[in-house]
Write a structure and sequence with these properties.
- The chain is an all-beta fold and 107 residues long.
- It contains no helices and ten strands.
- The strands form three sheets. Strands 3-2-6-7-10 form a five-stranded antiparallel beta sheet, with no helix packed on it. A three-stranded mixed beta sheet has the order 4-1-9, with no helix packed on it. A two-stranded antiparallel sheet has the order 5-8.
- A hairpin with a 2-residue loop joins strand 6 and strand 7.
- It is elongated and about 65 Å long.
Length: 107
């Protein structure tokens, strides 16, 4: 007798790097996934996301608090990033990354 076990879940990996000059990114998340508690300039961290195959592709902005010179502001990337099944998505947040503060939109 042969027993075959298979998982109904698939995975993908997302990595985020902070290349913002002299700034710390905190509470960095993508979709509903926390990617990093804190990222100093030049630092990167990643997570593997496990979900049902039917739940991929996933698309979201990157959300974070940026701290620089004692000031902190909540930001989201202006554009979304899509993670597909079995993909290794690498996102770099830099000085030129377009971001918005959704709390200030519409004023």
């Amino acid at each position: 007798m042969v027993l075959v076990l298979s998982s109904c879940e698939e995975s993908a990996r997302i990595t985020i790097q902070n290349n913002v000059h002299n700034a710390k990114l905190e509470q960095v998340s993508w979709d509903n996934y926390s990617v990093a508690h804190s990222l100093l300039t030049g630092e990167k961290k990643g997570i593997t996301i496990w979900d049902k195959k039917s739940q991929f592709s996933k698309t979201s902005v990157v959300k974070f608090y940026m701290t620089r010179g004692g000031n902190q502001v909540y930001l989201e990337t202006k554009y979304t990033f899509t993670l597909d099944i079995n993909e290794n998505l690498e996102i770099v947040i830099s000085d030129t990354t377009q971001v918005i503060n959704p709390f200030l939109q519409g004023r």
